[in-house]
Design brief:
The chain has 423 residues and is an alpha+beta fold. Helix content is 37%, strand content 16%. It is flat. 20% of the residues are buried.
Protein backbone atom coordinates (compact mmCIF):
# COMPACT_ATOMS: atom_id res chain seq x y z
CA UNK A 1 0.00 0.00 0.00
CA UNK A 2 1.31 3.46 -0.92
CA UNK A 3 1.74 6.43 1.36
CA UNK A 4 -1.43 8.41 2.14
CA UNK A 5 -1.13 12.11 2.94
CA UNK A 6 -4.13 13.58 4.72
CA UNK A 7 -5.00 17.22 5.18
CA UNK A 8 -6.50 18.57 8.40
CA UNK A 9 -10.19 17.93 7.53
CA UNK A 10 -9.37 14.38 6.43
CA UNK A 11 -7.43 13.70 9.63
CA UNK A 12 -10.42 14.95 11.61
CA UNK A 13 -12.74 12.59 9.71
CA UNK A 14 -10.40 9.66 10.45
CA UNK A 15 -10.36 10.51 14.15
CA UNK A 16 -14.17 10.70 14.30
CA UNK A 17 -14.60 7.40 12.43
CA UNK A 18 -12.01 5.71 14.67
CA UNK A 19 -13.85 6.90 17.77
CA UNK A 20 -17.12 5.63 16.31
CA UNK A 21 -15.47 2.30 15.55
CA UNK A 22 -14.15 2.11 19.13
CA UNK A 23 -17.67 3.00 20.37
CA UNK A 24 -16.44 6.01 22.35
CA UNK A 25 -19.01 8.21 20.55
CA UNK A 26 -22.45 7.39 19.18
CA UNK A 27 -23.60 7.44 15.55
CA UNK A 28 -25.69 10.54 16.26
CA UNK A 29 -22.65 12.40 17.66
CA UNK A 30 -20.51 11.33 14.69
CA UNK A 31 -23.23 12.49 12.28
CA UNK A 32 -23.35 15.86 14.05
CA UNK A 33 -19.57 16.29 13.89
CA UNK A 34 -19.31 15.25 10.23
CA UNK A 35 -22.43 17.09 9.08
CA UNK A 36 -23.84 13.92 7.53
CA UNK A 37 -26.91 11.78 8.06
CA UNK A 38 -26.72 8.65 10.22
CA UNK A 39 -27.00 6.41 7.12
CA UNK A 40 -24.12 8.20 5.40
CA UNK A 41 -21.99 7.81 8.52
CA UNK A 42 -22.68 4.08 8.63
CA UNK A 43 -21.58 3.73 5.00
CA UNK A 44 -18.44 5.74 5.76
CA UNK A 45 -17.73 3.48 8.75
CA UNK A 46 -18.05 0.32 6.63
CA UNK A 47 -15.69 1.80 4.05
CA UNK A 48 -13.28 2.88 6.80
CA UNK A 49 -13.23 -0.65 8.24
CA UNK A 50 -12.44 -2.08 4.79
CA UNK A 51 -9.71 0.23 3.45
CA UNK A 52 -8.66 2.31 6.49
CA UNK A 53 -7.66 5.95 6.08
CA UNK A 54 -8.06 5.81 2.29
CA UNK A 55 -11.83 5.89 2.93
CA UNK A 56 -11.73 9.64 3.64
CA UNK A 57 -9.79 10.50 0.44
CA UNK A 58 -11.97 11.37 -2.56
CA UNK A 59 -11.67 8.98 -5.49
CA UNK A 60 -10.75 11.80 -7.91
CA UNK A 61 -7.87 12.99 -5.72
CA UNK A 62 -4.66 13.14 -7.78
CA UNK A 63 -6.40 12.59 -11.13
CA UNK A 64 -6.32 15.14 -13.92
CA UNK A 65 -9.72 16.68 -14.72
CA UNK A 66 -11.42 15.38 -17.85
CA UNK A 67 -11.90 18.95 -19.16
CA UNK A 68 -8.27 20.06 -18.50
CA UNK A 69 -6.88 22.34 -21.21
CA UNK A 70 -4.27 20.48 -23.26
CA UNK A 71 -0.59 21.38 -23.02
CA UNK A 72 -0.33 22.18 -26.74
CA UNK A 73 -3.25 24.61 -26.50
CA UNK A 74 -1.73 26.34 -23.45
CA UNK A 75 1.66 26.66 -25.22
CA UNK A 76 -0.05 28.17 -28.29
CA UNK A 77 -1.93 30.72 -26.17
CA UNK A 78 1.28 31.71 -24.36
CA UNK A 79 3.03 32.14 -27.71
CA UNK A 80 0.42 34.44 -29.28
CA UNK A 81 -0.42 36.34 -26.05
CA UNK A 82 3.17 36.92 -24.91
CA UNK A 83 5.20 40.10 -25.16
CA UNK A 84 6.14 39.50 -28.80
CA UNK A 85 2.87 37.74 -29.76
CA UNK A 86 0.34 39.22 -32.14
CA UNK A 87 -2.32 39.31 -29.39
CA UNK A 88 -0.07 40.74 -26.70
CA UNK A 89 -2.38 43.67 -25.90
CA UNK A 90 -5.77 41.97 -26.32
CA UNK A 91 -8.05 41.65 -23.34
CA UNK A 92 -9.30 38.20 -22.37
CA UNK A 93 -12.80 38.62 -23.80
CA UNK A 94 -11.57 39.92 -27.18
CA UNK A 95 -8.79 37.33 -27.34
CA UNK A 96 -11.27 34.48 -26.76
CA UNK A 97 -13.25 35.58 -29.82
CA UNK A 98 -10.13 36.00 -31.99
CA UNK A 99 -8.69 32.62 -30.94
CA UNK A 100 -11.92 30.87 -31.89
CA UNK A 101 -12.12 32.71 -35.24
CA UNK A 102 -8.49 32.70 -36.42
CA UNK A 103 -6.64 30.05 -34.39
CA UNK A 104 -9.38 27.40 -34.10
CA UNK A 105 -8.87 27.40 -30.29
CA UNK A 106 -12.07 27.06 -28.28
CA UNK A 107 -11.59 28.06 -24.65
CA UNK A 108 -13.72 29.67 -21.97
CA UNK A 109 -13.14 33.31 -21.14
CA UNK A 110 -12.56 32.67 -17.41
CA UNK A 111 -10.14 29.80 -18.21
CA UNK A 112 -8.24 32.01 -20.65
CA UNK A 113 -8.10 34.85 -18.10
CA UNK A 114 -6.75 32.45 -15.45
CA UNK A 115 -4.06 31.06 -17.80
CA UNK A 116 -2.88 34.55 -18.75
CA UNK A 117 -2.57 35.58 -15.08
CA UNK A 118 -0.87 32.33 -14.03
CA UNK A 119 1.79 32.88 -16.70
CA UNK A 120 2.12 36.58 -15.77
CA UNK A 121 0.94 37.73 -19.19
CA UNK A 122 -1.76 39.92 -17.70
CA UNK A 123 -1.86 41.81 -14.41
CA UNK A 124 -4.53 40.94 -11.86
CA UNK A 125 -7.13 43.69 -11.33
CA UNK A 126 -6.52 46.21 -8.62
CA UNK A 127 -8.09 45.33 -5.33
CA UNK A 128 -10.89 47.74 -4.64
CA UNK A 129 -10.56 49.55 -1.30
CA UNK A 130 -13.02 48.45 1.33
CA UNK A 131 -15.67 51.07 1.99
CA UNK A 132 -16.75 51.19 5.61
CA UNK A 133 -19.69 52.91 7.21
CA UNK A 134 -19.12 55.20 10.14
CA UNK A 135 -20.22 53.65 13.42
CA UNK A 136 -21.92 55.85 15.99
CA UNK A 137 -20.48 56.08 19.47
CA UNK A 138 -22.07 54.06 22.24
CA UNK A 139 -24.61 56.01 24.24
CA UNK A 140 -23.18 55.53 27.76
CA UNK A 141 -19.76 55.33 29.35
CA UNK A 142 -18.74 51.75 30.16
CA UNK A 143 -20.75 50.10 27.37
CA UNK A 144 -17.71 49.45 25.15
CA UNK A 145 -13.98 49.82 25.83
CA UNK A 146 -11.42 49.63 23.03
CA UNK A 147 -8.07 48.19 24.14
CA UNK A 148 -4.79 47.77 22.31
CA UNK A 149 -1.02 47.93 22.63
CA UNK A 150 1.38 50.17 20.68
CA UNK A 151 5.07 49.29 20.50
CA UNK A 152 7.09 52.40 19.71
CA UNK A 153 10.18 54.46 20.55
CA UNK A 154 8.26 56.36 23.21
CA UNK A 155 11.40 57.80 24.84
CA UNK A 156 13.17 58.02 21.47
CA UNK A 157 16.87 57.11 21.70
CA UNK A 158 17.14 57.90 25.42
CA UNK A 159 15.81 54.50 26.47
CA UNK A 160 14.51 51.14 25.27
CA UNK A 161 11.61 50.49 22.94
CA UNK A 162 8.40 50.01 24.96
CA UNK A 163 4.80 48.98 24.48
CA UNK A 164 2.05 51.29 25.70
CA UNK A 165 -1.06 49.30 26.65
CA UNK A 166 -4.22 51.37 26.91
CA UNK A 167 -8.00 51.52 26.97
CA UNK A 168 -10.32 54.22 25.66
CA UNK A 169 -14.07 54.54 26.29
CA UNK A 170 -16.08 54.40 23.08
CA UNK A 171 -18.84 56.75 24.24
CA UNK A 172 -16.72 59.61 25.57
CA UNK A 173 -13.25 59.10 24.09
CA UNK A 174 -11.76 59.17 27.60
CA UNK A 175 -8.47 57.45 28.23
CA UNK A 176 -9.29 55.03 31.05
CA UNK A 177 -5.94 53.28 31.35
CA UNK A 178 -2.36 53.62 30.11
CA UNK A 179 0.70 51.68 31.18
CA UNK A 180 4.11 51.10 29.68
CA UNK A 181 5.33 47.50 29.44
CA UNK A 182 8.54 46.08 27.94
CA UNK A 183 6.41 44.17 25.40
CA UNK A 184 2.72 43.59 24.63
CA UNK A 185 2.14 40.78 27.08
CA UNK A 186 -0.51 38.93 29.04
CA UNK A 187 0.38 40.57 32.36
CA UNK A 188 -0.11 44.02 30.87
CA UNK A 189 -3.68 43.23 29.83
CA UNK A 190 -4.41 41.56 33.18
CA UNK A 191 -3.28 44.74 34.94
CA UNK A 192 -5.49 46.77 32.60
CA UNK A 193 -8.64 44.69 33.21
CA UNK A 194 -8.07 44.56 36.97
CA UNK A 195 -7.17 48.26 37.27
CA UNK A 196 -10.31 49.41 35.43
CA UNK A 197 -12.54 46.95 37.35
CA UNK A 198 -11.24 48.06 40.76
CA UNK A 199 -11.43 51.77 39.96
CA UNK A 200 -14.59 52.06 37.84
CA UNK A 201 -16.22 48.62 37.58
CA UNK A 202 -16.79 46.06 34.85
CA UNK A 203 -17.73 47.32 31.37
CA UNK A 204 -20.28 45.59 29.17
CA UNK A 205 -17.73 44.67 26.47
CA UNK A 206 -14.09 44.96 25.41
CA UNK A 207 -13.22 45.56 21.75
CA UNK A 208 -9.76 44.36 20.72
CA UNK A 209 -7.68 43.01 17.86
CA UNK A 210 -7.04 39.34 17.05
CA UNK A 211 -3.74 39.06 18.93
CA UNK A 212 -3.29 35.52 20.28
CA UNK A 213 -3.11 36.96 23.83
CA UNK A 214 -6.69 38.17 23.43
CA UNK A 215 -8.10 35.59 21.00
CA UNK A 216 -7.11 31.92 20.98
CA UNK A 217 -6.00 30.72 17.51
CA UNK A 218 -6.70 27.08 18.38
CA UNK A 219 -9.43 25.16 16.62
CA UNK A 220 -11.91 23.21 18.75
CA UNK A 221 -11.09 19.54 19.19
CA UNK A 222 -13.67 16.81 18.77
CA UNK A 223 -14.14 16.70 22.56
CA UNK A 224 -14.67 20.48 22.57
CA UNK A 225 -17.32 20.23 19.84
CA UNK A 226 -19.14 17.44 21.66
CA UNK A 227 -19.10 19.45 24.90
CA UNK A 228 -20.07 22.71 23.17
CA UNK A 229 -16.82 24.42 24.23
CA UNK A 230 -14.63 26.77 22.25
CA UNK A 231 -10.90 27.29 22.83
CA UNK A 232 -10.16 30.41 24.87
CA UNK A 233 -7.03 32.32 25.69
CA UNK A 234 -6.43 33.08 29.35
CA UNK A 235 -7.76 36.62 28.94
CA UNK A 236 -10.85 35.37 27.10
CA UNK A 237 -11.52 33.03 30.01
CA UNK A 238 -11.07 35.87 32.55
CA UNK A 239 -13.59 38.07 30.72
CA UNK A 240 -15.99 35.14 30.29
CA UNK A 241 -15.93 34.37 34.03
CA UNK A 242 -16.49 38.06 34.82
CA UNK A 243 -19.46 38.20 32.43
CA UNK A 244 -17.82 40.75 30.12
CA UNK A 245 -18.26 40.32 26.37
CA UNK A 246 -15.06 39.97 24.32
CA UNK A 247 -15.33 41.27 20.73
CA UNK A 248 -12.50 40.67 18.24
CA UNK A 249 -12.19 43.24 15.45
CA UNK A 250 -11.55 42.10 11.87
CA UNK A 251 -9.57 45.21 10.89
CA UNK A 252 -7.69 48.10 12.53
CA UNK A 253 -10.33 50.50 11.17
CA UNK A 254 -13.02 48.73 13.21
CA UNK A 255 -11.39 49.96 16.42
CA UNK A 256 -10.45 53.28 14.92
CA UNK A 257 -10.82 55.31 18.12
CA UNK A 258 -7.87 53.70 19.85
CA UNK A 259 -5.88 53.55 16.60
CA UNK A 260 -6.30 57.32 16.24
CA UNK A 261 -5.38 57.69 19.90
CA UNK A 262 -1.98 56.09 19.21
CA UNK A 263 -1.37 58.65 16.46
CA UNK A 264 -2.14 61.48 18.87
CA UNK A 265 0.00 60.02 21.68
CA UNK A 266 2.93 59.33 19.37
CA UNK A 267 2.90 63.03 18.64
CA UNK A 268 2.07 64.63 22.02
CA UNK A 269 3.23 62.10 24.63
CA UNK A 270 6.67 61.60 23.06
CA UNK A 271 7.35 65.34 23.20
CA UNK A 272 6.19 65.63 26.82
CA UNK A 273 8.43 62.71 27.84
CA UNK A 274 11.28 64.46 26.03
CA UNK A 275 10.67 67.72 27.92
CA UNK A 276 10.68 65.77 31.21
CA UNK A 277 13.89 63.95 30.10
CA UNK A 278 12.30 60.55 30.81
CA UNK A 279 14.63 57.64 30.09
CA UNK A 280 13.22 54.64 31.97
CA UNK A 281 9.93 52.75 31.94
CA UNK A 282 9.36 53.54 35.63
CA UNK A 283 9.66 57.29 35.08
CA UNK A 284 7.45 57.08 31.99
CA UNK A 285 4.69 55.32 33.94
CA UNK A 286 4.96 57.95 36.69
CA UNK A 287 4.19 60.70 34.14
CA UNK A 288 1.06 59.01 32.74
CA UNK A 289 -1.61 59.96 35.38
CA UNK A 290 -1.06 63.71 34.87
CA UNK A 291 -1.02 63.26 31.09
CA UNK A 292 -4.28 61.26 31.13
CA UNK A 293 -6.02 63.92 33.25
CA UNK A 294 -4.93 66.73 30.92
CA UNK A 295 -5.84 64.75 27.80
CA UNK A 296 -9.34 63.89 29.03
CA UNK A 297 -9.98 67.50 30.05
CA UNK A 298 -8.99 68.63 26.56
CA UNK A 299 -10.47 65.95 24.26
CA UNK A 300 -13.14 63.88 26.09
CA UNK A 301 -16.78 64.34 25.09
CA UNK A 302 -19.90 63.92 27.23
CA UNK A 303 -21.91 60.75 26.63
CA UNK A 304 -25.47 60.93 25.31
CA UNK A 305 -26.69 58.98 28.32
CA UNK A 306 -25.33 60.44 31.55
CA UNK A 307 -26.00 57.20 33.47
CA UNK A 308 -22.86 55.08 33.12
CA UNK A 309 -23.06 51.34 32.40
CA UNK A 310 -20.34 50.22 34.80
CA UNK A 311 -21.08 47.15 36.93
CA UNK A 312 -19.31 47.46 40.31
CA UNK A 313 -17.34 44.51 41.65
CA UNK A 314 -18.98 42.67 44.57
CA UNK A 315 -17.64 43.42 48.02
CA UNK A 316 -14.89 41.12 49.32
CA UNK A 317 -14.33 39.70 45.83
CA UNK A 318 -11.21 37.52 45.55
CA UNK A 319 -9.19 39.47 42.99
CA UNK A 320 -6.53 36.76 42.78
CA UNK A 321 -9.14 34.20 41.73
CA UNK A 322 -10.64 36.20 38.86
CA UNK A 323 -7.79 38.40 37.62
CA UNK A 324 -5.23 35.69 37.02
CA UNK A 325 -4.26 32.93 34.64
CA UNK A 326 -5.10 29.39 35.73
CA UNK A 327 -4.19 25.85 34.75
CA UNK A 328 -5.57 22.54 35.95
CA UNK A 329 -3.42 20.04 37.83
CA UNK A 330 -4.07 16.68 39.53
CA UNK A 331 -2.92 16.25 43.13
CA UNK A 332 -0.43 13.39 43.47
CA UNK A 333 -0.58 10.74 46.19
CA UNK A 334 1.90 12.65 48.36
CA UNK A 335 -0.34 15.76 48.26
CA UNK A 336 1.95 17.62 45.87
CA UNK A 337 1.26 19.43 42.60
CA UNK A 338 3.80 19.68 39.80
CA UNK A 339 4.07 23.21 38.43
CA UNK A 340 6.66 24.04 35.74
CA UNK A 341 9.60 22.41 37.49
CA UNK A 342 8.36 23.34 40.96
CA UNK A 343 6.59 21.15 43.47
CA UNK A 344 3.76 22.65 45.50
CA UNK A 345 3.17 20.82 48.79
CA UNK A 346 -0.49 21.26 49.75
CA UNK A 347 -1.39 21.70 53.40
CA UNK A 348 -4.07 19.33 54.66
CA UNK A 349 -6.69 19.95 57.31
CA UNK A 350 -9.73 18.33 58.87
CA UNK A 351 -11.93 19.34 55.91
CA UNK A 352 -9.40 18.26 53.29
CA UNK A 353 -7.63 15.34 54.86
CA UNK A 354 -7.14 13.59 51.55
CA UNK A 355 -6.74 15.58 48.34
CA UNK A 356 -4.95 12.87 46.32
CA UNK A 357 -6.42 12.52 42.85
CA UNK A 358 -8.45 15.75 43.11
CA UNK A 359 -8.27 18.35 40.37
CA UNK A 360 -7.05 21.75 41.52
CA UNK A 361 -6.22 24.98 39.70
CA UNK A 362 -2.95 26.86 39.96
CA UNK A 363 -3.43 30.61 39.44
CA UNK A 364 -0.83 33.24 38.60
CA UNK A 365 -1.94 36.83 39.22
CA UNK A 366 -0.65 39.98 37.55
CA UNK A 367 2.02 40.34 40.26
CA UNK A 368 3.25 36.84 39.23
CA UNK A 369 2.28 35.32 42.58
CA UNK A 370 1.32 31.63 42.55
CA UNK A 371 -1.94 30.60 44.22
CA UNK A 372 -3.78 27.30 44.40
CA UNK A 373 -7.57 26.79 44.39
CA UNK A 374 -9.93 23.85 44.79
CA UNK A 375 -13.08 25.17 43.18
CA UNK A 376 -13.18 28.72 44.56
CA UNK A 377 -11.56 27.76 47.88
CA UNK A 378 -7.98 28.88 48.33
CA UNK A 379 -5.49 26.17 49.37
CA UNK A 380 -2.41 26.75 51.49
CA UNK A 381 0.84 25.33 50.14
CA UNK A 382 4.58 25.71 50.20
CA UNK A 383 7.07 25.36 47.38
CA UNK A 384 9.54 22.53 47.88
CA UNK A 385 12.48 21.31 45.85
CA UNK A 386 11.20 19.44 42.83
CA UNK A 387 14.05 16.92 42.99
CA UNK A 388 13.90 16.28 46.73
CA UNK A 389 12.44 12.92 47.73
CA UNK A 390 10.36 12.71 50.90
CA UNK A 391 12.33 11.21 53.77
CA UNK A 392 10.75 7.93 54.92
CA UNK A 393 9.95 7.60 58.64
CA UNK A 394 12.65 5.91 60.72
CA UNK A 395 11.60 2.51 62.01
CA UNK A 396 13.49 -0.01 64.10
CA UNK A 397 13.93 -3.01 61.87
CA UNK A 398 15.36 -6.44 62.69
CA UNK A 399 18.41 -7.29 60.57
CA UNK A 400 17.54 -9.58 57.68
CA UNK A 401 19.74 -12.51 58.81
CA UNK A 402 19.32 -12.08 62.58
CA UNK A 403 17.44 -14.95 64.36
CA UNK A 404 13.96 -14.10 65.63
CA UNK A 405 13.32 -15.87 69.01
CA UNK A 406 9.55 -15.95 68.56
CA UNK A 407 9.81 -17.49 65.09
CA UNK A 408 12.28 -20.07 66.44
CA UNK A 409 9.82 -21.11 69.21
CA UNK A 410 6.97 -21.38 66.66
CA UNK A 411 9.14 -23.49 64.38
CA UNK A 412 10.09 -25.92 67.18
CA UNK A 413 6.43 -26.29 68.25
CA UNK A 414 5.38 -27.14 64.68
CA UNK A 415 8.20 -29.61 64.40
CA UNK A 416 7.27 -31.32 67.74
CA UNK A 417 3.63 -31.66 66.71
CA UNK A 418 4.71 -33.19 63.43
CA UNK A 419 6.91 -35.82 65.19
CA UNK A 420 4.25 -36.82 67.74
CA UNK A 421 1.68 -37.23 64.94
CA UNK A 422 3.65 -40.29 63.85
CA UNK A 423 3.96 -39.16 60.27
Amino acid sequence: MGTITLNDPQQRKCEILQRLKDETISSAEAAQLLGRSARQVQRMLIRFAEVGMAAVVHGNCGRSPANKTGTRVVDRIIEVAGKDGKYHDFNACHMQEILAEHEDVLIGRSTLDRLLKENQLRKPPRKQPVKRRRRDRKSAEGMLLQIDGSTHRWVEERGPKMCLIGAVDDATGKILYLRFRPTEDQIGYLLLIQGIACRLGLPMAYYHDRHTILLSPKKPTIDDELAGRKPMSQLQRVLDELGVESIAAHSPQAKGRIERLWGTLQDRLIKELRLANVTTIEDANARLPAFIEAYNARFAKPAKDHEAAWVPLPENVDLNYYFSTKEERVVLNDHTVAWYGKTLQLATGPLRANMAGRRVYVHTNAQEEILCYYGKSSLSFKVIDANAKPTPPIRERTPKNAPDPERQKLGRRKQTNFIHAGV
